[in-house]
Amino acid sequence: xxxxxxxxxxxxxxxxxxxxxxxxxxxxxxxxxxxxxxxxxxxxxxxxxxxxxxxxxxxxxxxxxxxxxxxxxxxxxxxxxxxxxxxxxxxxxxxxxxxxxxxxxxxx
Length: 108
Prior knowledge:
Number of strands: 0
Pfam families: RNA_pol_Rpb6
Protein name: DNA-directed RNA polymerase subunit K/omega
Distance between the termini: 34 Å
Structural class: mainly alpha
Keywords: DNA-directed RNA polymerase, Transcription
GO cellular component, one term: DNA-directed RNA polymerase complex
Number of helices: 5
InterPro entries: Pol_omega/Rpo6/RPB6 (IPR006110)
């Protein structure tokens, strides 16, 4: 997932309920799918952030010296400015980029 190219809003926006539940005809099912995708996105972002911050890690036992790393601060600021995982998931849902299937209809 390319976080720089997303069009998800950073601030809270109002979304038409009919657009959200259109693919499933059930708002609760749509919200459930979106929340599961948001959890996946959050896990991916957290993993990516920890990998980038590990590059700057210093393994000293000395507590006297604390280094302020400008690159580390920039990486942290970048991730703070990103849209929330919920916004990213809703944007993906509205653009029909999330694959889902209803297992009840698949079994029949």
